[in-house]
Specification:
heterotrimer; A mainly alpha (83); B mainly alpha (162); C mainly alpha (108); B: 162 residues; mainly alpha; 2 domains; three-stranded antiparallel sheet; C: mainly alpha; Helix Hairpins; 4 helices
């Protein structure tokens, strides 16, 4: 267990509030929580890549950060149209 | 024609650079594949640009004040942490506030669109301020600040594009 | 040994910003107030990425991590703007100043 894996554990625990807000909040609050959880997951993947010394996790982070952006834009657009 | 080719070449080079960053393999088959993929992506970009869906022009002189919102970023992180502590001590239903600043660049030409897009981007860089939009009818830029304050022009439109 | 301290500082700073942002979205009551904390979280990701670059130098993993960090910050700015607009449209029917809103227009 190195400092990177400790950091990754902390980041994964920090997803809890986002999950809570997704369940308990309104759709607009859920969108904010979703976008934040995407940022947290990206950071967690970076840290896990360094902790495990596995470069493919960085590739996951690269793909995920782009998908989080696209997904956030899509859901924001859907909320505008009250779907 | 020459300008279009130059733009396409710059786009291709940028995309090929992204490929090399992601793949980091200098073998010949990989370079050829990367060049080909970048070419396909460049064609896609040019096809989208040819639709003139959102023509916007950004002039280099407009970004000379970009240091302002960048310098505000760490300061605003401190502001947000202070607001978090205040909210923990005393829960309020709403802390932030909307503010509006006169914004006259409302023309529907490429320059006008570029100004509004850049003002919205730069205005939202520092975390205490989020630009909601430029209301062309009322000629204002509307922002939400978690801790309202600061001179209007410098915080709401840091590049002074309006 | 000389790299361990800056790596530790950057990593702790980045993770702290992200954790505080997660706490803030629970503590804040208003959606737009919550939205502001996407910015510090993205900056925290950038700090984590810089920590990796300091640890690994500009290697493949370092370059990709830095690209991810920078993209996270820039895309976060755009997401903030788009989401703020979407929140107001969803709740009020339009993102502009509503008739019953008291927003004073500041002149330059």
């Amino acid at each position: 267990m190195n400092e990177w894996l400790v950091a990754a554990t902390v980041l994964i625990v920090a997803l809890g509030p986002c999950l809570g807000l997704c369940f308990a909040g309104r759709p607009v609050d859920g969108l904010v929580a979703l976008e934040l959880s995407g940022v947290i997951t990206t950071a967690a993947l970076l840290v896990l890549a360094e902790g495990f010394h596995r470069q493919p996790f960085v590739d996951l982070a690269v793909v995920f950060v782009v998908l989080n952006f696209a997904g956030g834009l899509t859901f924001a657009r859907m909320l505008e149209r009250r779907l | 024609m020459a300008r279009s080719l130059a733009v396409a070449l710059i786009i291709w080079a940028g995309l090929a650079g992204v490929w090399m960053l992601l793949v980091d393999n200098e073998s010949l088959p990989e370079l050829v594949l990367g060049a080909g993929v970048a070419l396909i992506a460049t064609v896609a970009v040019q096809l989208v640009r040819a639709q003139h869906v959102a023509d916007a022009r950004i002039r280099s002189s407009w970004i000379r004040r970009l240091w302002r919102p960048l310098a505000r970023m760490p300061l605003d992180v401190g502001v947000l942490i202070v607001e978090l502590v205040r909210q923990l001590r005393q829960r309020r239903p709403e802390r932030g506030q909307l503010r509006a600043l006169r914004f006259r660049a409302v023309d529907q030409d490429a320059d006008g669109r570029g100004r509004r897009a850049l003002a919205e981007l730069a205005g939202s860089l520092a975390p205490n301020t989020i630009v909601v939009g430029v209301d062309r009818r009322r000629r204002v830029i509307l922002v939400h600040q978690l801790r309202p304050g600061g001179e209007g022009e410098r915080t709401l439109d840091p590049l002074e594009l309006g | 040994m000389t790299r361990e301290l800056p790596v530790a500082i950057l990593l702790v700073a980045g993770v702290t910003l992200i954790v505080l942002s997660a706490l803030a979205i629970l503590v804040m009551r208003n959606t737009l107030d919550r939205l502001h904390y996407l910015g510090p979280a993205s900056l925290g990701t950038l700090l984590v990425a810089i920590a990796i670059v300091v640890e690994e130098s500009f290697s493949l993993i370092g370059d990709k991590a830095l690209a991810v960090g920078v993209f996270a910050v820039l895309s976060g700015v755009v997401l903030n703007h788009v989401t703020a607009r979407a929140v107001r449209v969803h709740e009020l029917g339009g993102w502009g100043i509503q008739n019953d809103e008291q927003v004073e227009v500041e002149e330059r």
